[in-house]
Design goal:
binds 5'-O-[(L-methionyl)-sulphamoyl]adenosine, 11-stranded antiparallel beta sheet, 31 strands, 6-stranded parallel beta sheet, 19 helices, single chain, alpha+beta
Length: 676
Amino acid sequence: MKSFYLTTPLYYVNDAPHIGHAYTTLLGDVINRYHKLLGFDCFLMTGTDEHGQKVQQAAAKRNVSPQQHVDEYNLHFKELWTQLGVKYDKFIRTTDEAHKAYVRQSLIKLWDKGEIYSKDYSGWYSVSEERFFDESELVDGKDPIGGKAVEWLEEKNYFFKMSAYQERLIQYLEENPEFIVPDFRKNEVLGFLRQPLQDLCISRPKSRLEWGIPLPFDEDYVTYVWFDALLNYVSGVVDKTSTEGEARWPADYHLIGKDILTTHSVYWTTMLMALEIPLPKHILAHGWWLNGGAKMSKSSGTAINPIPYIEAFGVDSFRYYVMRDMVLGQDASFTDEAYFRRLNSDLSNDLGNGLNRVTKLILTHCEGRIPEAKLWEAHDEDLKTLAQQTVAKVLDMMESIKISQGIEEIMGLVRAVNKYLEIRAPWKLVKNPDLLPVFHTTLCAAAEALRLAFTLLEPIMPEKVAAGLAMLGTTFGGKESLVWNPNEGAELKPGPQQGLFPRILVEKEKPAPSPAVEVTSPAQLLELRVVEITQVEEHPEAEALYILQVNLGNEQRQVCAGLRKSLAPTDLLNKKAVLLANLKPAKLRGQISQGMLLAGEISEGRLTLANPSEIAVGSLLSAGDLKAAPKSQIKITDFDKVPLQVKEGKVYFEDQLIGFEGKPLLCAAPDGAEVR
Ligand code: MSP
């Protein structure tokens, strides 16, 4: 059996876990479960990062010892993982004795090899980032990451000769293009490595920080938290082997968020090179969950707690939403609206509805047992073929960690079952006794296709799938059961009265309202999102219109835009634009348009798109100081109340610049031109 070892980052023990942390660990759980389904011998490790200044300070504030503090706080993560249904094989804490011993042993090895040296060092130190910055890196005299105060420190420290590995690392990345996934992240790292690599300061004097692992060769110092924490990936499995007795290391994947790509792909890999330990097979960096366009985080006040969602709508709905709505590598926005929309459309309308239709007809007309398929016709065969193809494709995608795409593929099968039911209309067939064999065959084939779809979804929604399969008269049967093999005669179990996936009543049941924003201007009600245009077609019924597909980061939409006279398809394809995303959808000559792209007038009817070139896809723009608080839907007359105008190539509402985090929305139209 092939071994599969997967890790998540070790979360800082101080922070209350939010949806961002929950996502990485859930992703680990889902990937791990798919690999189990595929027959791998799996090991998933997660844990907490427990040393460092912030822990020391938080403990002092509470008047407890740092150890007592971390003993309590790591439980927040363990409890959340239990609530989210995460099945890990090991929870490692950097305060575990075995880990501490391994770190000290690694330091001795590097010291003996001459990979570590000491020197006097001075620089601007940020307590909140726990690192030094060069003068040139400071922004307004503050640390450039968190914007917090820095202090000038002069002290002796120990350094790891990281710079010596620069060339080897570059060569490794070039020769192993799959080492960092997705591909564009590898290019980012290579870009970073074009600058000379510095040596890494790996110590902190005890006079300043006591809460850490003492350096074995100088007990007046403790180990830098990152140097300590990264070693967990190896220390946690030194005594672990696969069922066939092979070492677990090297890991198959380190799952991380893009925020910690450098520490993993540069610090960690060079540390391993120096320690002469093989490198992990892949580092997979996912994007961020955004809230209001910003990275969700405690410090920015944008953290969202997953618990109210789990409590209100069930753990499996949460698992489904975050896995489905984040395309690996890209950022995604977490909004109640997207959450409800996704669950209602995929789970209630498609999966729940298909299951409901089939099981109700079988319970009412077939004595609750799956009928035999006696009259097999072309459309039944088509459904079977599609189901078999879906199984093969999805298993492939999940093995290559294309989770959201794999789910979409499964949902394609579910939608095909519903379409098949609509065409065959078993509710009509049942009325004609001559057509009974057709009726039976239809239900048998639809139930079987649904069984396969549910089985494929098991790693995402284990509880709902168990219930759904029971309603189809069966249980989860693992990989062997992923073949077309109708359960003729199996007895169905009636499901819950309200259906397996009750619709979410949007207005009534909203959990965790977003932080209140005072609305003083109609400009705040607009949802102006940065999008990328992914497809351009001409509207067959309207010569002025294009039908565009646009990507909002976590969602794809269709928009009809009156740009044909002004712009060629090549001016639009793969370009960024700004969508008024909460405009009430409308049909334009038979085609749905979900929003409107902003454009400015150059001359009589000739338009140019507003251009958010520096702003990331998915970002929510606002007008200067007016914090955006978009209404769920607005009318065009609401938009009329917010006249947007071009001044010196930038878009303004009155004197407020439209943009995102200081980056302006541009528009190459003359001064005074209206933007809409
Ligand atoms: N302790 C370090 C990691 C050491 S690994 C040896 C750390 N901890 S953290 O608590 O800040 O967690 C970082 C990880 O949490 C990110 O890399 C990511 O996996 C996850 N996320 C935290 N915020 C996130 C979002 N807003 N969105 C998605 N994931 C994010 O860094």
